[in-house]
Amino acid sequence: MILEAPKGDSTRPTTDKVKEALFSSIQGRIPESAFLDVFSGTGQMAIEALSRGAESAVLIDQAGKSMQVIKKNLEKTHLQDQARTLKMPFAEAVKLLGKEGAQFDIIFMDPPYAMADKYAVTVAELIEKYKMLRADGLFIVESDSNTLINENVTNMTCLKCCKYGSTLITFFVE
Asked: What residue ranges define each of the domains in the chain, with the CATH number in brackets?
């Protein structure tokens, strides 16, 4: 199924090649999981997780156009009942979830590449502060292949990094 995307270049959806490789590597963790998608854009990553058996997903994006598209895509895929959307700045949304006691098996973020390192550290600190990652959970960051996420600052352990063309996917565990 082809998902909608906002017009213009305000979003940069994860390529199909990267998405397939990522989900192939975490497929065993998806069934019945809670998935958090930070900087959701089109919602494709959370929708993919839900379509592969995730129990629930929270999608965060502050852009109004992106949130409209996310909601349309959730309806198109009939997954809206398993998803919660938060239209607000990412740090504010993650704090809100943390204060609510939300926990996730997989936290995925695809921030603007220029800010990936800084934003990953911000989210990692919030994850740790609010104990948002369940035991054996994964924090996954998509970035430009030239941007190594500073694993020492996140207080997490880098499990692995996978490069796909100009994209780098970094997997962290607590």
From this structure: 16-21+31-173 (3.40.50.150)
Q: What are the pLDDT digits (tens) for 58-67? A: 999 999 999 9
CA 25 to chain centre: 15
Burial of 164 (0-12, 13-18, 19+ CB in 10 A): middle
How far is residue 65's CA from residue 90's CA, in Å, rounded to a whole number?
Answer: 16
The whole model's pTM is what?
0.92
CB-based burial, 67-106: b 16+ in 10 Å, e otherwise: bebbbebbeebebbebbebbbeebeebbeebbeeebbbbb
Closest to 112 measured CA to CA, from 61, 151, 162, 50:
61
